[in-house]
Amino acid sequence: MAVSTPPRRASRAPTEPGSARPPGRGRGLLARATLLLAVPAVVVLVVFFVVPALRLLWLSVTTPEPGLGNYTAILTDEVSLTVVLRTLGMAAIVTVVCLLVAYPYAYLMTIVSGRWRAVLLAVVLIPFWTSLMARTFAWVVLLQDNGLVNTVLGAVGIGPLRMLGTTAGVTVAMAQVMLPFVVLPVYTTMRGIDRKLVDAALSLGARPVAAFRQVYLPLSFPGVAAGATLVMVLSLGFYVTPSLVGSPQQSMLAQFISVQVNQLVNFGAAGALAVALLVVTLVLLGGVALLTRTRGTRSSAGAGVAGGLV
Amino acid sequence: MPETPTGASIRAEALTKVFKGAPAPAVDAVDLHVRPGEFMTLLGPSGSGKTTTLNMIAGFEAVTSGRILLDDTDIARLPPHRRDLGMVFQSYALFPHMTAAENVAFPLRQRKVAKPEAARRVREALELVHLDAHGDRLPSQLSGGQQQRVALARAFVFAPRAMLLDEPLGALDKKLRESLQLEIARLHSELGITFVFVTHDQEEALALSDRIAVFRDGRIEQVGTPAELYETPVSRFVATFLGDSTVFSGTLRGGLLDTGSAHLRAAGPDGACALVVRPERMHLGAEGENTLSATVTDVVYQGAFRRVLVAFDAGGTGQVRDTGTTPVQAGDRVEVGWAAEAGVVVADTPGAAAAQSLDDPVPA
Ligand SMILES: Nc1ncnc2c1ncn2[C@@H]1O[C@H](COP(=O)(O)OP(=O)(O)OP(=O)(O)O)[C@@H](O)[C@H]1O
Ligand SMILES: [Mg+2]
């Protein structure tokens, strides 16, 4: 998972507009002393992220020979190009699936009573607290040709469908793993939306769909953006679930890098791919940060609220 | 959309709301007739059902039973977006992601009003609330009073058939509240449409309303003009809720009220009742058919007059508006007098919080 660590760290970026509240009173000495609180994190980051990342970058332009050969190879070598595009595609699909499931789910959480809300929250969080390996193996068991899903499908006369080792199987498993990362920020943002605003929209003549589209949806956008970014970024570097549920023929970038390192001992190519992944991730984060910033200034309904929770 | 310069009449008939699990109805068979173009205020203590009534008219709250007629059509089961009523909330409820002008344009956009026409009406509406210079600001960049004026403009820009306002000034400080009261009164007369206004502030109700409906425990206790409510309240509750008063309760027989410790002259039917006397109808001195000895407990200087609080020897407390030239002080012994016709005899329902009466062991 070493490769997916950088995006995980970097993914805190879009939450910054929210957490960077006015520095206020903490001027001068106190402010400087407060900065010391960041020292442990910075040390960890430098030792375990910046140094290895720089080393990878160095390797990618020096092995097997100095130059940008490893980078041009990504774009010219059909296999690596396919893997990169497949990874981007999968990440996009998983993000969309997660949003489609999480948005109504988070909305439901805002309208039910306290007890049901706790149940819904637990349903999202319990898997979140369970080991990723355990959950992924659970999916392997479920999706087998004679697994539970196929048994149920067979009972209603469908299938058996081949799911293990397919893109569909990976999508389902990844989406489930990622779900909390969307549900939580979206729910937090939604909880901050005044229900009276929807009432106001209705009383002003908006049909329910228009009230949702013109008022509720834009106000929940910060949560959607935060959740989508997290899922997208995590999916790009996802290793465990695609390796176990998917097939080597359909491998994603992290698996491909792992093969380069472990089997082909091709550090140069692996480094170049990892750097490419990092760049894509940073571009994505930058884009979303820009988008939420321009939107954020227009919405006092806490653009950063979502971030506060994640 | 038809322009309705006089606004619609609103008629609630046996309007009832029972919330699930609630022991008593929040609104209990309310009958209310708001005339076209009228400024009607729903006044009452917290929890008396004002908001629930307004929300049923607006369509946010389902009606348990009864009818709501807007002119001649029953709207009780119409969704809110088809009722054509302009709603103003205490919390403003401005869309935070839209500028003031976009907020005001919102109802026009829903009605597919053409762009130039919409722009003109938005500008006119913002001018009417003196915010034409602030159209491009976001709500977060406006003060509370300005936000509420935007909310007002947004609610009347589409020429609704009536305006519904739920404590629109409740979140503002006193000074701002008074200036916005004037603004709302002016809007009402300039727009000429029906206003239904909710408040628990009696001064606000007296200052703004054509008529006031006094709510109590989900029912309407009395409907009338401010003067009617002030001068001829039907119950002790109404008398004490609207304005200050001194209340004596007892039994009336042949024009004489027996409070247990005193006999007072008053006109009314025989039986248990309460006698209400407004502070400006009482004076310090022994003139008048009724006089009681008392001790001054407090004097509040109000400029043109002094508010004198007294404790009667016969028990209970009272309030006198004193315009005399010789000031009294706390601790002074005084006579309090008033004419028999100065008092109003009402049903002796338990009073509102402000009640000051003979049988109150603790002065309010
Ligand atoms: N959604 C609800 N569910 C259950 N009970 C409610 C609900 N809304 C209001 N009530 C109850 O109905 C009664 C009337 O409430 P309402 O909000 O209409 O009072 P109000 O006159 O507007 O008071 P206030 O001046 O405090 O706004 C109260 O007893 C309240 O507790
Ligand atoms: Mg209320």
Automatic annotation (TrEMBL), chain A:
Q: How does it sit in the membrane?
A: Multi-pass membrane protein
Entry coiled-coil feature ranges: none
In Pfam terms, one family for this protein is BPD_transp_1
The terms describing its cellular component in GO are: plasma membrane
The alphabetical list of record keywords is:
Cell membrane, Membrane, Transmembrane, Transmembrane helix, Transport
Q: Where are the transmembrane segments?
A: 35-59, 79-106, 118-143, 163-187, 215-240, 267-291
Q: Where is this region: Disordered?
A: 1-25
Q: Where does the UniProt entry say this protein principally localizes?
A: membrane
Where does the protein end up? Cell membrane
Pinpoint the ABC transmembrane type-1 domain residues. Answer: 84-286
GO biological process terms, semicolon-separated: transmembrane transport
Q: Which CDD domains match?
A: TM_PBP2
The record ties this protein, via InterPro entries, to: MetI-like, MetI-like_sf
- Identify its protein family: Belongs to the binding-protein-dependent transport system permease family. CysTW subfamily.
Q: How is this protein named in the record?
A: Putative spermidine/putrescine transport system permease protein
TrEMBL record, chain B:
Give the domain of life. Answer: Bacteria
Q: Which Gene3D superfamilies match?
A: P-loop containing nucleotide triphosphate hydrolases
Q: Does the keyword Membrane apply?
A: yes
> What's the Enzyme Commission number for this chain?
7.6.2.11
Q: Which residues form the ABC transporter domain?
A: 10-242
Reactions accelerated catalytically: ATP + H2O + polyamine-[polyamine-binding protein]Side 1 = ADP + phosphate + polyamineSide 2 + [polyamine-binding protein]Side 1
SMART domains under this entry?
Answer: AAA
Annotated Gene Ontology cellular components are: ATP-binding cassette (ABC) transporter complex
User: Mind listing the UniProt keywords for this protein, alphabetically?
Assistant: ATP-binding, Cell membrane, Membrane, Nucleotide-binding, Translocase, Transport
Which InterPro entries does this entry report, sorted A to Z?
AAA+_ATPase, ABC_SmlMolc_Importer, ABC_transporter-like_ATP-bd, ABC_transporter-like_CS, Mo/tungstate-bd_C_term_dom, P-loop_NTPase, PotA-like, Transp-assoc_OB_typ2
Q: Name one GO molecular function term.
A: ATP hydrolysis activity
Keyword presence, Phosphoprotein? no
Q: How does it assemble?
A: The complex is composed of two ATP-binding proteins (PotA), two transmembrane proteins (PotB and PotC) and a solute-binding protein (PotD).
Q: Which family does it belong to?
A: Belongs to the ABC transporter superfamily. Spermidine/putrescine importer (TC 3.A.1.11.1) family.
Biological function: Part of the ABC transporter complex PotABCD involved in spermidine/putrescine import. Responsible for energy coupling to the transport system.
User: What is the designated name of this protein?
Assistant: Spermidine/putrescine import ATP-binding protein PotA
* Species the sequence originates in: Pseudonocardia oroxyli
Name of the encoding gene: potA
